[in-house]
Design goal:
Blueprint (H helix, E strand, L loop, with lengths): L3 E4 L3 H5 L1 H4 L3 E5 L14 H26 L3 E3 L14 H26 L3 H22 L22 H18 L19 H18 L4 H4 L1 H9 L15 E3 L16 H6 L2 E3 L1 H9 L5 H4 E2 L25 E2 L1 H4 L6 E4 L1 H13 L8 H19 L8 H10 L6 H11 L6 H9 L24 H6 L1 H14 L15 H7 L3
Antiparallel strand pairs: 1-2, 3-5, 4-8, 6-7
Helix pairs in contact: 3-4, 3-5, 4-5, 5-6, 5-7, 6-7, 7-9, 7-14, 14-15, 14-17, 15-17, 17-18
């Protein structure tokens, strides 16, 4: 199996990867011969692109997302993410890796164009949109139009506005959908770790991602016509097929055979959960109070009752171990433990929200809502390693406990539980909707504000100072006291949209 090894030009380019570095394809372990950048097939990039992008998000869901959104609290006093003490190395890594794999997808697309491979074009556009969405969602304005041109000497590209980036992502996903030839597989299906060359499932992922990104900007409906776009997509299921079951999930099922193994394969139990991440009190209390059957799949109870650490509180309140649940190492961190970046339940929650908002008609919000909960429970029961049975009566009782009450809050609170272990999506949803309502700890930094964005990497201001300054100036204009900090909301957020409507 031909595996590509990527290397960036220099350290400064690595910090500014999406801007001046396209991820160098100078070295390939295809001994004894090296291949030139344009001599490979687009499928050759797909395997590493999917594996590494999923691996990045798997690490981040454990490392930072859970701490921000109160799924977990670090079991070590050395980590203070849940107190919003976040060094610049964290956003720098997010910036570098997301741009790296966006650049890889961009190169895959250009190769596929040259070779007239429409399915690889569609996949590459989908993956580039997926990576670029993570870039802009984390920071706001970032380079896109002039990104990936380091080989052409463009080392200091402009920062596109978040609005223009999203408009481009919608165009790219529309194009990807139109390109798929579902009657054909890839030439080498084994290189497709996600769907095994099944283009119909890739097409459903493309459109499900499109729906996610459309809803991301629902607070800017009047500016982008989001409601009409969602109606068009949902009302034409033949043209725009969405996920139809958990079989369509964007999930990597690792074989356990090196190199196709879960990121945490070599992480000890202690480093993963005891000293790494343990349950947040607010999250386990929320799930325990409503009898959520996923609680014992997400976590392992210690002691006679469910408990967790308080998020954002002083160190002396997060050092006791009594009744503090651990992450479920057997389910989440084995060599074959699967990881998803998007699941069927999310699509159903998006449809429930669209119905609740009056954007779509037909199937009611309650039906979508209950189907979403069932899909989430079904997925997690399917990957549960305990072998415990899950009677229908338990699911029915749970649905009664969390009966739909007609509000957006009800939908998003259940979506929050379902988005556990799914990249950075719960943080995105919190910023988009304001739900769930979270209690901010007394020992938090950042003016006791749950971070609204990441700060730009430090190297950005030195390697591309003019364009960086322009991006920061736009942040300052968009929000009172705004700037390159973790308190200025991104354009699509509920906070920013409300601010823009003020006289």
């Amino acid at each position: 199996m031909k595996t590509i090894r990527f290397r960036c030009y220099a350290a400064c380019c690595m910090a500014f990867l999406g801007m001046g570095c396209t991820a160098s394809f100078e070295e390939y372990n295809t001994n004894p011969n090296q291949m030139e950048m344009w001599e490979i097939g687009p499928e050759s990039l797909l395997e590493n692109l999917v594996f590494k992008e999923f691996e990045c998000l798997l690490h981040r869901t454990w490392y930072i997302n859970g701490e921000l959104i109160q799924y977990t609290v670090s079991g070590s006093s050395l980590n203070a993410f849940h107190r919003y003490v976040i060094s610049n190395g964290v956003p720098s890594d997010h910036w570098a890796t997301q741009f790296q794999w966006a650049a890889t997808a961009d190169h895959m697309y250009r190769l596929a164009l040259e070779q007239n491979d429409v399915n690889c074009q569609a996949i590459a556009l989908t993956m580039r949109a997926f990576c670029m969405a993570h870039c802009t969602d984390g920071f706001g304005d970032v380079p896109f139009t002039e990104a990936f041109q380091g080989r052409d000497g463009l080392a200091q590209p402009l920062f596109d506005t978040q609005r223009s980036i999203y408009e481009r992502l919608y165009e790219d996903l529309e194009l990807a959908n139109s390109l798929y030839d579902v009657s054909k597989s890839l030439k080498s299906p084994s290189r497709d770790l996600l769907y095994g060359g099944d283009m119909a499932r890739w097409k459903r992922f493309t459109n499900s991602l499109h729906l996610r990104l459309l809803m991301r900007c629902i607070n800017r409906d009047g500016e982008l016509g989001i409601s009409e776009r969602i109606r068009s997509l949902v009302s034409q299921p033949t043209l725009y097929p969405l996920f139809e079951s958990n079989d369509d999930n964007a999930t990597l099922f690792y074989t356990g055979v090196v190199p196709f193994v879960n990121y945490f394969k070599n992480t000890t139990y202690e480093n993963f959960t005891t000293y790494g991440r343990r349950a947040s009190a607010s999250f386990v209390d929320r799930m325990a109070a409503i009898g959520d059957p996923r609680l014992s799949i997400y976590f392992v109870r210690r002691g006679d009752a469910w408990g967790g650490y308080p998020s954002g509180e002083p160190v002396d309140e997060t050092t006791t171990t009594e009744n503090v649940a651990n992450l479920n190492w057997e389910v989440l961190a084995q060599s074959t433990s699967p990881f998803s970046v998007m699941r069927y339940d999310e699509v159903l929650f998006l449809l429930a929200e669209a119905a609740q908002r009056g954007v779509i008609a037909g199937v009611g919000a309650e039906e979508y809502y209950e189907a979403a909960i069932r899909a989430s429970i079904g997925y997690w029961h399917g990957v549960d390693t305990s072998g415990a049975e899950l009677p229908e009566s338990v699911i029915e009782a749970y649905l009664q406990n969390v009966a739909y009450d007609g509000t957006l809050r009800c939908i998003i609170e259940q979506k929050y539980i379902a988005l556990f272990w799914c990249g950075m999506e719960a943080w995105n949803e919190y910023r988009r909707t304001g739900y769930p309502e979270l209690t901010i700890g007394s020992a938090t930094s950042n003016d006791h504000i749950l971070p609204t964005r990441f700060e730009y990497p430090v190297n950005t201001s030195t390697t591309n100072p003019v364009n960086y300054a322009q991006a920061v100036a736009r942040l300052a204009e968009s929000w009172p006291g705004g700037g390159d900090n973790m308190r200025t909301p991104v354009w699509w957020s509920l906070q920013a949209a409300r601010q823009s409507q003020k006289p």
